[in-house]
Every structure is written in C-alpha cells, then in structure tokens.
Amino acid sequence: MIYIIIPVHNRKNYTRNCLLSLRKQTYKNFKTIVIDDGSIDKTNEMLKKEFPEIILLKGDGNLWWTASINLGIKCAIKNKADYIMTLNNDTIPKKDFLEKMMLWTEKKPNFILGALELDAKTKKLIYGGEIIDWKTASYKSLLKTLKPKKRKGIHKTTHLPGRGLFIPSHIFKKIGLFDEKHLPHYAADFDFTHRAVKAGYNVYCNYDAKLLTYPEESGDKKNKRKRNLKNYYNTLFSRNGGGNLKDYFHYAVKNCPRQWLPSFLIIGIFRRIFGYPYHWIFDK
Q: For position 123, which CATH number holds?
C-alpha cells in the first residue's frame, strides 16, 4: 500500500485539483493523507465535504513543510505503509504517475525515486534531477546533459526534492524522518536524500513518472517576483525564503564533505547575499 503525504496551508483550489488528479490514477492501491496546517481559506471544510476518502490531519499553522510531512509519515507507518510518497498540493500527477513509480520500484525495491517535472502552464520540462558539485557549490542539471531520446527510464542523482518523492517505508526505520529541527521548511528533502545515499541507498529521477508543477507558486519565487527590501530580508531570513542563511548553514554542515565545506559555505552565502540585489538592479 502506498501512502501519499500532502501538506497544505491555504491554496484550496490547488489542493482540490491535486486530489482530483489522484482520483484518476490508473494504479489504485493507495491512500492519501492531507495535513492541513492552519488554513484559513476553508480548506478543511472543502476536504471533509469533497474528499471523504482521505485521512485528514491538522496543524495550528506552525508545522511548516517538514513537520507536516513527518506527521503524515508517522501516521502512514502506523498504518503499515509499504511505500510513502511526499507530494506538494500545487502539483498534478499524470494519471499513470503511480503506475510508473510502482513499475520501477518493483524492479529496484531499495531505490528512492523522484519525478520528472513539467511546467503545468507551458508543459515544458523544468526538472529532471541534479548532480551536486560540493567544491563549487553548483548543480548540474540532468535535463541539460541528457539528449531527448535518453529522457526515459531512471537516472541517478545525488539528491531529490520532495515533490513526488517515492520512498520505501523501511528506509525511515534505518535513517529516521525528515529533519524538522534544523530544516523546518526548505532543504529537508535534499538533506533526507543525501542521508539515504550515505546509508547505502540510491536516488534516481524517474523520467517515466511525470508531474505537472507550478514553479511560480513557491514562497521563494514570490519573494523574487517583486524585489524590494522586505522580500530581500524574507529571502535570507524567513522560513519560506529559498536563500535562508540559517537553513543553508545547517544543510552544508550536515551534508558537505569536510574538505569542501569552507568553499561551499563561502560561495553559497555570497550568492545568497549578493545575488538578490544583483538581479534586482540588472534584471530590468
């Protein structure tokens, strides 16, 4: 049995569309857990009325992504889940998404699988896994290196995001849950998959499992869409800031090889502090 974990905070219509897409899945042996973390747009009422089949858990608005996911995972493990998939509410899985995940996980039962992402509006490919270079604090996109005819099957990565992350449940027993203490919102997914690799598991992006996403809906994108001093501060210090310096420090210290840690920290922090004002000035 697959348990799908979806944390939500407002954005009722995105949640509805995501859940409707799950109803259309060709693979049916799954249950969905939604964690409503203090929504004030009547998400809770909509879920109870329109989706009685889901398991609904509640937060007070202070769980954020990582604690919400962990709450759902604990529930799934208690219900003896075989597989757990983390999913954001601003995503639309293709109808054969779970089928394609199961096809590969049956062949590779100890792999963690991620999804091939397409922009929901343009249908262009936007994410297909990355390879991190700790020395230069940079990431090589597999989409840019793979020829179109190779964009199928599974491809090895160094880490994966939490959007459509497919995990055999026994892995949690070995490496634990996502790190809600140090990484409450961003980078907990990358951190988890790095830890899995260190524990001997492989992480692959499944190019056969396609996920429609809305990249402009992330909190970080919103901070960058309208550049001002408030959003600059939020980028560096708020929990939904993609350039959060505290999160970056914890992520680096936990995962970067020690010989590259100084350069990884210096380069990454420099980019975060000066990248925002640079684009603010020159991206006109």
A: 3.90.550.10
